[in-house]
Amino acid sequence: MNERTGSLSEHAGEDRTGRRVAEARLLFDCERLTLARRLRGLRKNQLAQAVGTTPAAIGRYEAGVQPPPERVLSRLAFALGVPVEFFGPGRAPVALDAAHFRSLRSTTQIERDQALAYGRIATDIARALEDLVEFPAAELPEHPVSPDEIAGPGPVQAARLAREALGCAPGPVPHLVRALERHGVIVLVLPPSTERVDAFSIGAHPRPMVLFNPAKGDYWRNRFDGAHELGHLVMHADAEPGSKVVEDQAHRFAAEFLMPAGDIAGELPATADWARLAELKEAWGVSMAALLYRARTLGIMPEAVYRSAMGGLAKQGWRRQEPGPALPLESPSMLVRAVELAGAAGVDRDRLAGLARVTRADLDLLVPARPRAGVGVTGS
């Protein structure tokens, strides 16, 4: 290549980039800038500093008062790790009901916004996939429980209804995540950057979601978390998230869903019989702490004995990690298999990311590839 040809190629590339930026500015969607900023866990002042502008200017761009100048748009795309086309209109917005976070005091608004932003693009990925692959229908029962009900039967009734609706046989639930996915719930493990956010659920329409903490690698507690979030989806469509009463209701739902009183009451010890608790832990797929909680709430274990047993757990260091072999977490597979089926039909991950209007990197974070392709969307 001579000098003249190289110069022409360079100018052609610059012209294409300029046209892309100009078109992105014309189609600029202010909500997409907010989404990208939240995905990266940035405050407005942090983003402003990264691109050489002011927080007030970022606020105007996000409010739709004015689009950013082309040079600023290019810097925003670079700082946020997205192509300029990301700022164009995305897929039609999905209604995200209030997310049920465990404790609003233990996380910052930035951390919760980031987690919700990942939930938003997960719905975009799922909707793009639903144009290509048939998903199971979203079929969760509804059993509203008043957020003012402190000790009533509502959570237990809701859990029994959910077990019946999800086709659970008497006894332990063998694979909670698979049961959720078979009934159309999107289940995801959040990226590592969100590790301070506990598991939470979103009543997205038409497909609800349960999102797991990426750092909590405990099989037993993860199952209880999943049942807890299922409780929110079944009982709390209209409840204000985060209240102590609502969280306690979800806890009681999870206990009945995973350990039905009629099935487990005769097996629970009245004392801190650690050998027996270890056996039940393996059989029922719940932690010893959850078994102790269940024994207390069913009136099998006296309050004083329960408190002493929980103190023993803490003294042994078992509140953080209980004894016994570690088990791999129940892994979501519905979206993974859907991506594989789309790929087999000629829509690879790059094209799917384009259809969903997300970056390929974010697609791979939320729906990691695996070595062997599956045979169906939800498996057997």
UniProtKB/TrEMBL annotation:
<dbReference type="InterPro" id="IPR010982">
    <property type="entry name" value="Lambda_DNA-bd_dom_sf"/>
</dbReference>
<feature type="domain" description="HTH cro/C1-type">
    <location>
        <begin position="33"/>
        <end position="87"/>
    </location>
</feature>
<dbReference type="InterPro" id="IPR052345">
    <property type="entry name" value="Rad_response_metalloprotease"/>
</dbReference>
<comment type="similarity">
    <text>Belongs to the short-chain fatty acyl-CoA assimilation regulator (ScfR) family.</text>
</comment>
<dbReference type="Pfam" id="PF06114">
    <property type="entry name" value="Peptidase_M78"/>
</dbReference>
<protein>
    <recommendedName>
        <fullName>HTH cro/C1-type domain-containing protein</fullName>
    </recommendedName>
</protein>
<dbReference type="InterPro" id="IPR010359">
    <property type="entry name" value="IrrE_HExxH"/>
</dbReference>
<dbReference type="InterPro" id="IPR001387">
    <property type="entry name" value="Cro/C1-type_HTH"/>
</dbReference>
<dbReference type="Pfam" id="PF13560">
    <property type="entry name" value="HTH_31"/>
</dbReference>
<dbReference type="GO" id="GO:0003677">
    <property type="term" value="F:DNA binding"/>
</dbReference>
